[in-house]
Structure formats: structure tokens, C-alpha cells
Amino acid sequence: MGGGTRLLHVVLVFLAVAAAIGQRLATLQFEQREFWEAEAVKARTRAETLGFKRGAILDCDGRPIASNRTTRNLAFVFGGFRRGAACGQLLLTHYLLTGERCGVAEVVAHPDARIGELAKLTIGELRRIEPGQRREDLLWYGAWLVEDESIKDGIERLRAGDPAQLAFPRIGAAHSAIATRVSAEAATLRQLTRALSVPEDELIERMDLAIAAADARVLRRMAEEGPVERAYERERALHRELDHRDALLFANVAHAAVFDLAADPSRLPGLVVREEPRRIYPPENDVGAALIGRVGPPSEATLKPWNEKRNERDVLALEPFPTLEQAMQRAELDDALRLDVVAPDEEVGREGLELTFEAALRGRRGYRRTENDRAGRVERELEVAAPRPGRDLVLTLDVELQKAAEAVLRRGFVKKGETGSRLGPAAFALVELPSMAIRVIASWPAPGRAELADQYETLANNKTTRPLHPRAWRPWLPPPPGSSVKPIVAAFALSAGIITPQKTLACDKLSLRAKGESKPVLCESEHFQIDVHDALVKSCNHFFARVAYSAGSERMVGWLRSVGLGQRAGFTAARLADGTEFPALAIEVAGTVEQERGGRNLMLLGLGQGKVDATPLQMAAAMGALALRSWQPPTLIARVGDEVPFRPAVEPLPISDAAWECVVEAMRAVTLPGGTASPSHGADLTPWDLATKTGTPQQAGGLSHSWLVGFLPSHAPRYAFAIFVERTGMHGGDAAAPFLHALLTDPAFAEISAAARRSDYEAAAARLAVRPAGGTDEESGDPISDDASSVDGGAE
Amino acid sequence: MTSARRFEVPWLVALLALGLLAIGILFVQSSTLGTDFEGLERRQLLMAAAGLLALVFFASFSHRQLARFAFPLYGIGLLMLVLVPFVGVDVGGARRWFALPGRVQLQPSELMKPFLVLALARWFEFRGVPDRLRDLMAPLLLVGFPFLLIKFEPDLGTALLLAPIAIAMTWCAGARKLHFLGGVALAAVLVPAIYFSPLLKDYQKERVTTFLESVPDLAEKALAARRDGRTAAAEQFEERLRELKLGAGYQSHCAQMSIGSGGRDGKGLGLGPNNRLSYLPARHTDFIFAVIAEEWGFVGASGVVLLFLLLGTAIVSVGVGTRDRFSQLVAVGAAASLGMQAFANVAMTTGLMPVTGIPLPLVSQGGSSLLSTCVLLGCVFSVARSRRDTEPFLYRVEVAVDPFHARSVATPARDSGVSAATPEEPIVHTVRR
Fold first, then answer.
1. Between residues 64 and 103 of chain B, which touch chain A (CB distance below 8 Å)?
2. CA distance B380 to A62
3. E-strand spans in A319-478?
4. CA quadruple B28, B30, B35, B37: dihedral, nearest 10
5. A480 CA to chain B: closest CA distance, Å?
6. A264 Cβ partners below 8 Å, 6+ apart?
7. Residue of A39, A132, A160 with shortest CB distance to B257
8. Among A70-74, A523-527, A703-707, A782-786, which range has the highest average pLDDT?
9. Which of A240, A334, A696, B66 is spaced 20 to 30 A from A569 at the CA atom?
10. By three-state DSSP, how is residue B92 classified?
């Protein structure tokens, strides 16, 4: 073979290598171009989610019941600490040298010892450190300690270098500089400890705990995974993966305390101030905790879409050469995950209005996609989508009235002739007319937010008062309304011509029986022949039993249902112009009104007993309907964002003027002498122009409840109300009327009180104008007998 | 020798080298713009000027003078390598440099390459055809000493580059095929043995294993595993992917990412995002080819590869044009040194071989590498003139002395009656056995 041939071989080798390189270039730059382009974009872009501001819940005057505040938490990131802080670097070098962790406190207290052990490290000792990865890590930390920029320039140079020639010989020379860094970090820690007003070393102890937790987390994962061949490498990888997480050191810290650290995080890398919007319930407006609800971490079910979409996206993300369709699908999934779907780190409504109106209160996350350099500095913004705040929810509730009502209920009532107040579960609902807007929906017991958080189990297990059941709209068992339904029955019956104002019906206290039944319907007094006015004022059971019997089951149930009984008030439901519908609180109690085929139960329906029960809110709404002679469900929602929700159409009720006048006239007399809520009972309500009705329904196996329902002023109704006191064993006038008196004399109710207040002269005249009373003025549950035939033979 | 001959240059080699140098300066500027290293291209220009002076200096010698200086130069190089651990300076964790006045650093291992080429050429010229195994011992020692000294600097990449120089020169010097096959067999045994021996450090082994894995392939496997519901396997693949991207394979991944995203036409000079945003490590030195591929795309990258191919071929052709065994071997050694270093750098950058710290000759920023390359080119320029000083190559092969295969030539040059040497540069290439 000639020399030229051998020279040619060299050229051929060049050609072969060049061809291989050309082929490789073509593969990378043509065949795999999209993959690498995507990898490059992925590497240099960061997508940051921008949190939205959750909509506030406001009362009718714009007072915040639930709002947001930026809170600051002091967190510890172990990864950042060991990488950036001199204390962290020394902590790690000690660990890499000895295999044992020392505390931050120890490093801060004795930095010289830690620096010394590195400076004294001989080349031989360094070479003996195994495995190689551990040695290399030690070299890196040494390099960072001496802040060697040339080493930071590239791992390749480090790896190519002789480990023995690296930073360690210079650590001795840099001893004082490292010690200065440590003391500066220690000073920052001391300053933070003082600013946070925590005991000395508390901060450092918590940092040590966080480090221990990080170690434990890694060890747990390794234990789960089982034995591995290269344990140190696995431990290292897990630390790298997990140690970027925040460990909360102090929550809700004062801005001033962390101001310096927030402004200059390089003061102590690893300690970070995280700002996040937090839901707060201003204590001054913290009312109706059970109604307003709370926010909390999303449930498993809420997170399901997020998990599903993320898995789907992760699978697509692995596709090295995605098709256009796959790319679009991934972009959609990315958008959904970034913007819409509830993410694990979010707070969502978990109960009450916070849950029901989640779709309105929850805004839309924004995001910022930036192009960053290798050090993480933002080079430019590629895409910014501003977060969309949630819509505010404006309630019809008046926080001041609600607070006053809750206070009144909390104080209990004083029975006439007694000095001490009686406490018991009670409720008060106030509906403004004609809008049917709920101004007050108060209950007692009503545990506050703090109580709910701290003593939830105790409250849930309290079977005596069942404090987790607000009586106004979610009683454990809805009570029968008792005689408080009588005005409604009277108004409909008068309008239907079943009775007339002049018609009298017999009441003999004991002997009223339905056909074929032996058990009688009882009335507390024998009213003889009684007309509707007196029957209402004295609450005659027989009169209304006969009316119910005459009207029949279907009509009775129809009348009661037409004013909202037997169905949910649906007071939180809302429908917006764009078709968005917010359902009523699922936990609202509906009450029942069921048809009776006849007999005694039908008679009892006329008395508000038997198969009828109602919440105080329902009764207040029913009184509103009676006052307006039209039905519209009550509402708690004034506005959702800028929109006023649609209201169901007003349904006129078939109540004639004469009937209404007759019934209201009788209701006015209830609080006057001779009425069931006369001053001789619990409270003197004569100074106010009220149309009321008491109720004292029997509750099976227990004491009777007390009701006082009505509206005011009676001549031009502006508010309807219902007061309910549970298991008092007393008449409505004795137990419920004092609450109304207390409310109307409360300064918060001054405006309402003034609207219904009579002048002294009018009050005196009203007291005198009352018809003389006969017999007792309250119904009784005691059995009385009558003949059902007498119902038909009632005298006019 | 006339003065005209004295400054006669192989223009193709000169033009190709200047072209690569210009590209290098352009991309050194592009890759350092806006970084702490901004302005490094001016330093590179100064280095290029110094390199040109060195080139002219070495080119000014005749090839015979070079031959005479070969061993002394090799000795100087070896001495410098011996001295490096004692008087060298640490840079980036390795002691490979001498500090010279004016913040200039000299890397003796780079200079060793041209000196080794001269020494080997001189040895083979002196010794004749190495057709016995023992004839290969001296070249092995000539390479082995600097190899070990450089390896323990440590600079395995540069040390390994001495091997192709020696192999190419030994082959062209006429070594027997059988010996080469034996060498190949020995390498086949030794390479795995070295891999599993403590000679290779953990990180070096890791580089080999990461080189054997491909990110797109792993991504595809992970996807397939996810699709098939093999979650555990998918997680293992994904973990490995993370390791390849962020761990041991980080540099290679970044380089391939830059090259791949360059596409056909590239992003434009100075506009490569991976370069601009510092995602490429050592991008003005060892990974400068990735910057070229990102900013000039396939067209530019393959153009640079072509330029190196042409340069290597042109240098070999300089050797072909000479009659002198020493000159031919110098040309082959220079071509092997430049070509294989360039191809090794590109292969490392494109993921065809494990990552080692080798600069791209004439293009990467770095004074010593540039100086070494210029010295090599100076030697090539010097030996190029021997074409005119000696007889035509073909004639000589045909007639008498095949410098690479003297044994196979039936008639020695001297006996053929045809003078194989000029009066002033006699060639003594005879079959000694």
C-alpha cells in the first residue's frame, strides 16, 4: 500500500466523521427540531400563577362580613438556605464530612469550628470521602463558601479539576470573610426574632425543626421505595426534589417585622416572606357564621378535575413530537390548569354562602409567562393574563341589626314577675316589605367563627341545644307554627266566603270532635259563640278548627303553601341575567305542609298543629305575604357583583280588602289589653303600631314553643317578623313578646321602632279602644270535646 | 532558498484557517455579549495576532530546521508539563496553566500537541518504517509521557487527543495492519476494563452512561409507559429524564437543545435565546459550536464542519505534495490534531460522544489553544515549502522511496539512480533491513 493511500485513509476518516456529524446535525435540527425547540422553550420560560382576589361578602350597607387581606408568612426553604446562606453551607459541609446534621444554632454559635474542620481537611481525607457524588457536593459547597465565581461559572470545569485543588486550600484564607457572613446572618436572625416578639432561639429552633422534617420526609420516601444501590445519590435527588417546598415558620406576621427581609431576601437566603391573600371575617361584623360559611382547602372531589387534567397534560407533555391537535389540546389543558380549575393550594368555599356562591366569589387566576435567564432573572414578559377578581356578594342583611338581634337573643327574656332572664334557643327573622329582603336572620345559640373552629366537635355533640342548627332557618326539627298561622287561615277563609267577619262559631272548650273520631280538639277557654276578630285576639282553637274543617284539606294546604309554608324559603337562591343560577343553601330546612283527608288532623291544621311546621324565616315571610297580600319568596341576596338577581314574579294572594282589614284589625288588638300579647303578659307593646299573632304549639314529648309573628306598622307594613323561642312551656305572649320589646327598644332598631311607634296619645287611645276580653286569652292544648256536626251548624 | 519561497504559503489552508478564526471571533462576541465576559473577542483578537506571529515564526523555519528542533521542542514541552503542578496556577479547579505577565495564561498541554507532532515525525523519519512491534515502543513512550502528565493535571480530554495524532502518524509512517488490528483488539479489552477500574472517576463514568441515553428516546419510553398504565416504569423514566436534563447530562442536554432549536437557518447572530440567556455552559469556549448551530442553524453548523473537513484535507494535501517524510508526517499529524480535535468537540456538543473539555480549534475562545493551532499551522506552512524543495511526490513513490512503505518498495531510491533529495535537503529514506 502506498503512502498516498494511507494519507487518503486519513482523509477518509475525516470524511466519515464529518458525515456522521452531518447526519447527527440533521437529526437534531430537522427530525428532532420541534422536540428540542419545545425543550428550549420549556427550559427558559417560567409560568407564574397570579392569585385572584376572592369576592367579598357585604351587608346591605357595604359593611364587609367576609373580605380579603394580604397576610405575610415567614417560611423556610431548606434548599435555598443550604445553597445560599453561609450558615446553610457550613451546615451542609459538616453533614457531608461527618454524615451528621448539626443545628443552625450550633453553626451560628460556633462558626469557627465549622470553618476550621473544612480548612483543616487534607487532600487525602478529601479523597477518602465516598461516594464521589458526596465528595463533589462537598467541593461545591466549599466553592460557594469562598464565593469563587470562576467555579460557579461551570460544573464542567469543576468536574474536570482535581478535587484537591479546589476551594479548600482557600477556605483558610477566606476564614474571616466566611465568619463575617455567618455573623451577618446571625444578626438578621436576632433582628427577626426581636421583631417577631418570639422567645430567643425560637426562630432558629423552628428552622432546625424544618430541616429535621425535610430529612424525615426524604428518609420516609426512601423507606417507601425500598433499598437502592446508590443511596446517597437517591437521598440527594430527593432532597433536591423536595427541599424547595416552604416550611411555615410563622404565620400572619406583621409587615414591619419582615419588611427588611422581604425587601432584601439576600440578607438570609432560605428565609422567605410569602404574601398571600387570606379570607378574613372582620370580628366587628362577624355575624351568622353558619350562614356565611367558611373557606378552606379544596376537598378531594373538588380537586378531581385538577388531578385529571394534570395527568392528561403530563402524558401529553411527554410526547416528544406532538401533533398540532395534541399541542392544541395541551395548550387548552395548560390554560385550564393555570386559570380555571381549582388548584390544591387554593382556598375554596366549604360551607354556607361561601360554598353556595363559590362560582361568583371565586375569581379567575391570572398568569405571567416570562423568559428567564439561567439565574432565574426575568428577561422579558411573554404573556400576562391579569387575574380576575371574584364578584362581591351583597346581602340584604343589616349587620348592625343582626348583631343587635343576636345580642338580644343571647341575653334571653325576662318573664313577667321574674327578675332573672331565661335563656333558651330562640330565633328572630325580619323581612323588609315590600322587597321581602331579609334584614335579620338571627338565632341563638349561634357559635362564633372562633368557637366553630376550636370547639366544633363539642358543638356537634351537644344534643341539648344543638348549637350547629340555627333556629331561624335550619332548626334540628322545624317547629309547628301553632296559632301564628291563624291570621293566614282567617284571611283566606274570609276572602273565600267560608266565614264572614260577623259569623260566629261555637267554642265549648272540650267537645269538638271530627266525624267518626273520639279524640277531641281542645281549646283553652270556652268562648261560646265567637267571631273571627275575637277568635284571632283570643286565639280560639275551636273556631279555626271548624274553619279548617269547612275549608277542607286541599284548600287549607293550598292557602298555607301559597305563603311559602311547606317549601324552602330559598332565600339564598339567585339567578343572574347571564343565566347563572346559584342554588339555595342545601341545608336550609323546608318545613312541611301535608294534606289531610279530614278529621281531627284537618282541624289541627287550622291551629298550626299537626302536619305543618315552619322555620321562623318562613313565618316572617308568610307574615310579609299577608301584609302585602301577595307572595314573593324572601331573599338574602341583593347583588352579585354589579348585577341584581332576578326575583320570582310577585304572586297576588286571593285576600280581599275587607278580609285583610278584618284580620289586621284583630292582629292589632293582640298586643293590646285583652290580646294574647297584651301588656299583662310578657311585655308592653302598645307603644308600637303592630299587627301580631302569638303561637304556642305543642311539641310532642316536651314543652311547648313560643311564637310571635306579625308586621309593622300595621297600617302601612314595612317589616314582617317572626320570633320563636324553643321549648319554653310558656305562651307566645309571655316568652316571645319580651324579645320583640327588647328589639324595638334597642338603639340599633331605632329607625324601625320609630316607623311603627305610636304617639303617647295614640298608644293610650289604642289601649282604651280595645274590646273587653272574655275568658282567658290563650289557646290550650288540653283536650276538649265537641261534636263534629257542630262545625257545620255554626251560628252566625 | 529564495526569499520568495521563504514566504510562500498554502493559500487554501491559510484562507480556511482565517475563515474559521473570523467565525470564532464573531461567535465569541455573540456568546459573551451582555455577560461578565463581554469584550472577550478583543482579547481573542489579540491572541489571534500573537498566534499569527507564532505561525509566521514557525513558518519561517525550513522543514529541516523544524526537524532539528523537534526533540528539543518536545523536551521543552515535557518540561513545562512537569513544572505545571509545581508552578502552575489554579483556574476553575485545575492546575493546567502558567501565569505569564499581563494576565496571560499559557497551557503547556496545548503546546505539547504541535511539539508531539514534530517529535513523532522526527522519530519516524529517523527510524523509518515501524514494521516491528518494538518499533512502536518509542512512539508509545513519546505519547505516553505527555499523556500521563496531562491526564494527571487533570485534563483527560486534551490527553486523549494525543492518541489520534499518534495513531494517524504511526499509520502513515507505515505501521503494519496486524499491529493496528492488535491495537484495536487491545482497546476493545482495555476500554471496558478502564471503565470499571478506579482510573475513571464517578463523574466520568456518569458522563459515559448519560451519553448512551437519549432524551427524546427516554421521553418516548416514558410516554409509552404512561399510556400503557405502567406508572412505576413511567416514573422511573421520568426520574432518569430529570437526571439527564438537570444532573449529569445537563451540559449535553443544553447543547443539544441549542443545536436542535436552531433548525435549518438558525435564530440569527446574537439572537439565540439559549446563548443570550446563558443556558449554555462554557458557550464561548467548549460549547461554542452549539452557539453557531443555534444562531446559524444547520446551514452554518454544517458549513463550519465542512470548513474543518476542508482544512484537514488541505493540510493532508500539503503533506501529499511533499517528498519529505518528515514534512508529510508533520502534515498528517497537524491534520489529525486539528481535524480530530474539531470533530471531537463537535461530536461532544452534538451528543455523539461523552462530554470532555476540548475547545474547538481556531473558533473557541482560549489563547493557548489558538497559539497551539497557529504553531501547528506554522509547521504546516513550513513543510509546505518542501514541495518546491524536493521532487514530485508521485515520481518519488513510483521510482524509489516510499517514505511510508519503504520495505515494500523493491528498489531503494539510492539504487534507482534517481536522486530523491535536493542538494540542500537530502532525504535518506532507505530500507535498512
1. 90-95
2. 90
3. 348-351, 366-372, 378-385, 393-395, 413-414, 421-422, 426-432, 437-444
4. 20
5. 59
6. none
7. A39
8. A703-707
9. A696
10. coil
Lowest mean pLDDT among A266-280, A410-424, B176-190: A410-424
- How many angstroms separate the Cα of A639 from the Cα of each of A61, A364, A394, A612, A646? 12, 20, 5, 33, 10
CA terminus-to-terminus distance, chain B: 34
Q: What contacts 24+ positions apart, CB below 8 Å, involve A154-157?
A: A154/B92, A154/B251, A154/B281, A154/B282, A155/B250, A155/B251, A155/B281, A156/B251, A156/B281, A156/B282, A156/B286, A156/B355, A156/B357, A157/B91, A157/B92, A157/B93, A157/B94, A157/B282, A157/B357
Which burial class, exposed, middle or buried, applies to A754 when counting CB atoms under 10 A from its CB (0-12, 13-18, 19+)? exposed
Angle between helices B63-87 and B325-350 (to 10 degrees): 40
In the prediction, which pLDDT does A390 show?
Answer: 92
Name the pairing type of β-strands A706-712 and A421-422. unpaired
- Reported ipTM: the value is 0.85
Instruction: Using pLDDT thresholds of 50, 70 and 90, give the confidence band for residue B35.
Output: low
Q: What is the DSSP letter of A165?
A: G
Q: Enumerate the domain spans of chain B.
A: 3-197+270-389, 394-433
* B247: pLDDT strictly greater than 70: no
How far apart, in Å, are the Cα atoms of A478 and each of A290, A469, A613, A621, A662? 17, 11, 6, 15, 30
Mutate to test the interface with A, among B97, B220, B309, B337 (most CBs of A within 10 A): B309
CA A547/CA A560 separation, integer angstroms = 14
Nine cell digits for residue A791? 262545625
Report the C-alpha gap between A641 and A636 in whole angstroms.
14
Range in A299-308, A580-589, A748-757, B329-338 the model is least confident about: A580-589
> How do beta strands A691-695 and A706-712 pair?
antiparallel
Take residue A374 and report the three cell numbers written for it. 439561567
- Indicate the average pLDDT of chain B: 80
Q: b/e map of A276-285 (b: 16 or more CB within 10 Å)? A: ebbbebeeeb
Q: Which of A2, A156, A319 sits opposite B281 (nearest CB)?
A: A156
The region of weakest confidence among A215-224, A430-439, B131-140, B381-390 is B381-390
Contact A486, A535 (CB under 8 A): yes
Cα–Cα distance, A235 to A301 (Å, whole number): 33
Selection from A492, A624, A607 nearest residue A551 by Cα = A492
Q: How far is the C-alpha of B94 from the C-alpha of B151, rounded, in Å? A: 11
Q: Which fold has domain A399-448+480-792?
A: Beta-lactamase (3.40.710)
Report the distance separating Cα B208 and Cα B195, nearest Å: 9
CA A688 to chain centre: 38
> Which position has the higher pLDDT, A344 or A57?
A57
Task: Give the tens place of pLDDT for each residue, A163-209.
Answer: 444 556 567 677 888 888 899 999 999 999 998 888 888 899 999 99
Query: What pLDDT is attached to residue B188?
Result: 82
Distance from CA of B90 to the nearest CA of A (A): 7
Say which of B312, B343, B397 has its CB closest to residue A4.
B397
Q: Which residue has the cell 438537570?
A: B246
Task: Write down the pLDDT at residue A655.
Answer: 93
User: For the residues B201-210, what does the mean pLDDT come to?
Assistant: 69
Residue ranges of the domains in chain A? 78-245, 399-448+480-792
- Nearest by Cα to A543 from A480, A626, A487, A606: A606
Of B355 and A20, the one with more pLDDT: A20
Compute CA B383 distance to the chain's CA centroid, rounded to the nearest angstrom. Answer: 19
Of A142-146, A366-370, A373-377, A432-436, minimum mean pLDDT range: A373-377
Q: Give the residue from chain A lying closest to B336, CA to CA.
A: A10
- pLDDT level of residue B221 (50, 70, 90 thresholds): confident
**Integer Rg of chain B from CA:** 23
Rounded CA separation B360/B348 (Å): 11
